[in-house]
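quick q for whoever's on today - can somebody do inverse folding on this one?? i tried earlier but teh output was garbage lol. tokens:
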């Protein structure tokens, strides 16, 4: 029906607006498996076309409502993104050696912690905590036949999802070879689907508990299994460093188990009214989730406190890039502080040119060394002479390093090694040769082919302050103008406004030249010179440049992607249609009530 179709469209839209691409894809796959199962178990097949028709309508409405996010993503997926995951990743069973750790963590979340509970805790299982009581309710949900074997279906899904990451089972692992699935990292992106499956089973257990059906024997079987698991885990890890903490974790779990058993006893002998029983179930669930979780109590704290070396970097004049080596400055956290960070840790690189640039010029084949190699924030590239000219060109002026840098990078122990400009909680080094973010050159090499452009950039490594490699067909008029100019003439550029979607540069150009802005090139950036449209060239493989004749100029770089604005138009249109349909449904309901 129309109402349910709109509800499904809204649910999918919220997921698309909030989610990680792999999460969105895997959730859709999960839902489709569920829908196929439900269609296969319907008593009548006559409504197949009706269900499929409304389902298609829901998808079309979802695409329309989320178009302002979906259209730019699809455009960049095809033309700009580089996906770091190799084609065999989906077939890996990444947590094959962590099955028992994961199971124990589900029941006793603090069992494997190696230190008392702090915000910086460690554990063996990535999948986290479910809880003794929710798992007990899910166990009750398994007993007896639910609507057309729905409990068996969700139990199988939970097992299959867990097995895909923890157990090498061919009849389950085959999905990792399918297109799109083959580049998904199941271990990191399916824990929520496993937890959801368990939650559905727990809901079935709650219904069974409140219905007054026989459940006491099942509860005792479950209690015995939990006690056996706790005993086996303690015996196995006796003598381990974390053993004393593990004993406390088991104690908390057994206390939760006692609460669960109290529920069962109240249901068996107390003959409680439905509302009272429901309140008790809610109370014990909240109690376990609130008091038996592997972290500190929820409290307010400053997400971005004042960090001395970050304040030092922010206090420097001009627009500068910084790079953290050996885990000193985590990528994108620096960006949150307002530091322009050169390191990166993303599954989708928004600039696919970054990958060949790093592989060819900075650190040979870095992004091919291992699966999931998305991070460029450990290698001490700024201390390598072969990489330094390219990092200088990219305005990488500061490098943050740990105090014990020499233990990771022995050359740092040499007495002639560069002295840090800051040495407190970390070391900060400055590269005096780093180019300004915006600068003028008077020579250009036109090379439309990326491989040849990289080769040319490698040959010209010592002259990047004077020459730019433009990935474009030769422009004779510009080439002639540049040849009339001296190599250096005192031309200068100054950034006067800098934002994510607009950069304004004032340039004083003594002779015709190229303004190079060492920010990432993207085909949907536009430029205006003194208010008039100008062509942006892809320069030095990664960055952008604009030709300027002699004189004073104001150059505005504007990011206004057509894919986004087309999506906005479609989303607003879809929202308008949805509102009209909602009023239609409301009017229809009102007429029926009259």
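ok took a stab at it. sequence:
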């Amino acid at each position: 029906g129309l109402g349910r179709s709109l509800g499904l469209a809204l649910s999918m839209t919220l997921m698309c607006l909030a989610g990680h691409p792999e999460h969105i894809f895997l959730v859709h796959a999960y839902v489709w498996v569920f829908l196929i199962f439900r269609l296969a178990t319907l008593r009548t097949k006559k409504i197949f076309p009706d269900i499929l028709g409304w389902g298609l309508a829901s998808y079309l409405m979802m695409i329309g409502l989320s178009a302002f996010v979906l259209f730019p993503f699809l455009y960049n997926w095809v033309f700009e993104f580089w996906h770091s995951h190799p084609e065999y990743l989906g077939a890996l069973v990444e947590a094959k050696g962590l099955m028992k750790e994961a199971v124990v963590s589900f029941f006793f979340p603090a069992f494997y912690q190696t230190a008392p509970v702090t915000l910086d805790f460690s554990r063996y299982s990535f999948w986290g905590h479910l809880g003794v009581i929710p798992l007990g309710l899910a166990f009750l949900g398994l007993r007896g036949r639910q609507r057309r074997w729905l409990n068996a279906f969700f139990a199988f899904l939970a097992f299959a999802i867990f097995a895909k990451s923890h157990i090498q089972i061919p009849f389950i692992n085959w999905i990792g070879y399918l297109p799109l699935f083959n580049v998904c990292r199941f271990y990191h992106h399916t824990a929520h689907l496993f937890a959801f499956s368990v939650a559905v089973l727990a809901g079935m257990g709650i219904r069974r508990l409140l219905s007054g059906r026989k459940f006491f024997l099942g509860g005792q079987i479950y209690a015995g299994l939990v006690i056996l698991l706790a005993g086996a885990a303690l015996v196995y890890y006796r003598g381990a460093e974390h053993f004393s903490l593990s004993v406390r974790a088991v104690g908390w779990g057994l206390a939760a188990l006692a609460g669960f058993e109290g529920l069962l006893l109240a249901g068996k002998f107390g003959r409680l009214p439905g509302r009272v029983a429901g309140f008790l179930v809610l109370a014990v669930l909240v109690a376990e989730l609130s008091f038996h979780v592997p972290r500190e109590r929820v409290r307010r704290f400053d997400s971005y406190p004042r960090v001395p070396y970050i304040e030092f970097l922010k206090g420097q004049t001009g627009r500068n890039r910084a790079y953290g080596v050996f885990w000193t400055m985590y990528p994108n956290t620096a960006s949150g502080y307002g530091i322009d960070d050169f390191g990166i840790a993303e599954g989708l690189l928004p600039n696919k040119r970054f990958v060949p640039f790093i592989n060819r010029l900075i650190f040979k084949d870095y992004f091919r060394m291992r699966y999931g190699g998305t991070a460029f924030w450990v290698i001490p590239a700024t201390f390598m002479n072969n990489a330094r000219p390219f990092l200088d060109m990219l305005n990488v002026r500061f490098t943050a390093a740990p105090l014990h840098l020499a233990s990771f990078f022995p050359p740092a122990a040499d007495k002639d090694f560069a002295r840090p400009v800051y040495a407190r909680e970390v070391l900060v080094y400055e590269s005096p040769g780093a180019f300004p973010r915006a600068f003028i050159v008077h020579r250009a090499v036109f090379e439309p082919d990326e491989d040849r452009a990289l080769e040319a950039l490698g040959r010209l490594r010592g002259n990047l302050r004077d020459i730019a490699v433009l990935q474009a067909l030769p422009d004779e008029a510009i080439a002639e103008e540049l040849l009339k100019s001296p190599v250096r003439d005192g031309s200068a550029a100054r950034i006067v406004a800098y934002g994510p979607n607009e950069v304004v540069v004032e340039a004083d150009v003594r002779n015709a030249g190229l303004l190079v802005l060492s920010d990432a090139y993207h085909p949907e950036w536009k430029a205006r010179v003194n208010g008039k449209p100008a062509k942006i060239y892809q320069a030095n493989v990664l960055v952008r440049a604009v030709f300027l004749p002699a004189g004073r100029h104001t150059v505005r770089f504007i990011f206004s992607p057509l894919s986004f604005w087309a999506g906005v138009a479609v989303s607003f249109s879809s929202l308008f249609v949805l509102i009209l349909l909602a009023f239609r449904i409301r009017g229809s309901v009102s007429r029926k009530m009259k």
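fwiw Residues 117-121 have pLDDT under 50 and may be disordered. also DSSP finds 21 helices and 18 strands in the chain. so keep that in mind when u check it
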